């Protein structure tokens, strides 16, 4: 079975000005962006909350968490599904040090993948000159210009009082 060649991400990790709306969304409401990306990718929309709540709970018990699990798992799954170049080591590094940039990059990638291509079809329309379809006409009664022959008198009007 032939494998498809690996491609690059549609945008770089720090290409915020390529899609400023996504970066503003991630900056002002990062957890909302993460939940949106997770849901659009087909995972549970609440999965990124594990990064926020899980890290806080574990830190409360004195267990530091370096790698946020949700961003790492979604990023690795997205790379595998779309055949994007990279490695698990790079995914771990990006997830540790640039989690919000990673969510923004994945959001841009999903937007790029969801674009519907515009297909323009040009057809050669041939015009045929045809005569119109004949229309049936009602029969026309022919009236003779000569007076009726003698002896044949047909009256349509009778006068009773004559």
Write the SSE topology.
Elements: H1 20-28, H2 30-41, H3 49-60, H4 69-82, H5 88-97, H6 99-113
Helix pairs in contact: 1-2, 1-6, 2-6, 4-5, 5-6
What does this structure look like?
The protein has a domain at 28-113. The chain has helices spanning 20-28, 30-41, 49-60, 69-82, 88-97, 99-113. The termini are far apart. It is built from 6 helices and no strands. Helix content is 44%, strand content 0%. The protein is mostly helical. The model has no long low-confidence stretch (mean pLDDT 80). This is Cornifelin-like. Keywords: Membrane, Transmembrane, Transmembrane helix. Belongs to the cornifelin family. InterPro entries: PLAC_motif_containing. The chain crosses the membrane at residues 52-72.
Task: Sum this structure up briefly.
The chain has a domain at 28-113. The protein contains 6 helices and no strands. It has helices spanning 20-28, 30-41, 49-60, 69-82, 88-97, 99-113.
What would you call the structural class? Answer: mainly alpha
Instruction: Give the low-confidence spans.
Output: none
Please report the number of helical segments.
Answer: 6
* Biggest sheet features: none
Average pLDDT: 80
Coarse morphology: rod-shaped
Query: Any idea what the radius of gyration is?
Result: 40 Å
> How many angstroms separate the termini?
111 Å
Number of beta-strand segments: 0
Question: Which sequence of SSEs, written as H and E, runs from N to C?
Answer: HHHHHH
Helical coverage, percent range: 40-55%
- The proportion of residues in beta strands is under 5%
